Amino acid sequence: MGFRILVAILVACCGAIAAGCATAQPAAEVPVVDGEQIYARDCLACHMGDGRGVPGMNPALVNSAWVAGSPDALAGFILTGGYGPDVLMARFDYLSDAELAALMSYIRAQFARIQEAPILPSLVEQMRNQLQ
Ligand code: HEC
After folding, report:
1. How far, in Å, from the CA of 122 to the mean position of ligand 1?
2. What residue's CA is closest to ligand 1, atom 21?
3. What is the pLDDT along the chain (132 residues), one digit of tens a residue?
4. Helix and strand tally (H, E) in the chain?
5. Distance between CA 43 and CA 36 in Å, rounded?
6. pTM of the predicted model, to two decimals?
7. Which residues line ligand 1 (CB under 6 A)?
8. Ligand 1 centroid from CA 127, angstroms
9. CATH architecture classification, 33-131
């Protein structure tokens, strides 16, 4: 292989890497909401990493009708900490619409195997307004 061709290949590769960096830049500025991280921070201590909860104390999210059921009802449950006056779970209404949407998409995919259509922040916003 001639030296010139080698140089040409190197230049092309560096160009590709530089272009990759340039396009990656704007994406890094958008705050990424990671449902798994929110679960680890706010839910895992009681419902456990595998979603099986603590028998007799904290119910499992695996096979939970709330998790597998209507997204509206699930959003309401998490926002109010379980509806009802006898709140056994904390309210999570401090989570933003985007955070709760990402968290719901995560637990539905992880514990109810519902992979389609992620939950949109607008659904959470609507439920939040209805609950006020
Ligand atoms: C301090 C412990 C604790 C934490 C933290 C907690 N939960 Fe709970 N969770 C509970 C308890 C206790 C119940 C049962 C409440 C009831 O029946 O009213 C429950 C019930 C639920 C249910 C209904 C399950 C079923 O089928 O009965 C869902 C869904 C749920 N939690 C989701 C979450 C999510 C999502 C988070 C994180 C944002 C979270 N929980 C954080 C203790 C906790």
Report:
1. 22
2. 59
3. 555 554 454 445 444 444 444 454 555 556 679 999 999 999 999 999 999 999 999 999 999 999 999 999 999 999 999 987 766 788 999 999 999 999 999 999 999 999 888 999 999 999 999 998
4. 7, 0
5. 10
6. 0.81
7. 42-43, 45-47, 58-59, 61, 64-67, 77-78, 82, 88-90, 92, 103, 107
8. 18
9. Orthogonal Bundle (1.10)
